[in-house]
Amino acid sequence: MSTDQADPSPDRPGTAPDPERLQRRLRRRTAEIERREVEEAVTTLDARGDLTDEQRETVRELGSALVGRLTAAPDRALERERRGGAGSAASGPPAL
To answer: Where is this region: Disordered (predicted)?
Structure first.
């Protein structure tokens, strides 16, 4: 597994990745992507003119909702793994 700038210690070869670390990385990375993409969308829409504060907020809420839905399943799987859920010893967390 590659290293992460904020979490420099890589997972050891031959061992299952730490689900807690993966969960933190998933959340951090998706927050970065959400911020960047929402700001790009707002900037593009602003350039067309007449974007209201309400519409701006709607775009931000939509971005947040999309991220939540896209990451819900992997986040739940990592949370189960972190808590020692079913199959944790045999299968390990899902690859990201």
So the answer is: 1-23, 73-96
pLDDT class for 22, splitting at 50, 70, 90? very high
pTM here is 0.67
Nearest partner of 23 among 39, 4, 46, judged by Cα: 4
Is residue 25 a contact partner of residue 4, using CB atoms and an 8 Å limit? yes
Closest alpha carbon to 76 in 19, 13, 7, 10? 19
Q: Tell me what pLDDT residue 50 has.
A: 84
Q: Is the dihedral of CA 24, 27, 31, 34 positive or negative?
A: positive
Tokens representing residue 19 in the block: 């689900």
Q: What pLDDT is attached to residue 84?
A: 85
- Number of alpha carbons in the 13 Å side-chain half-sphere of residue 12: 2
Mean pLDDT of 50-65: 95
Query: What's the CA gap between 11 and 3, in Å, rounded?
Result: 8
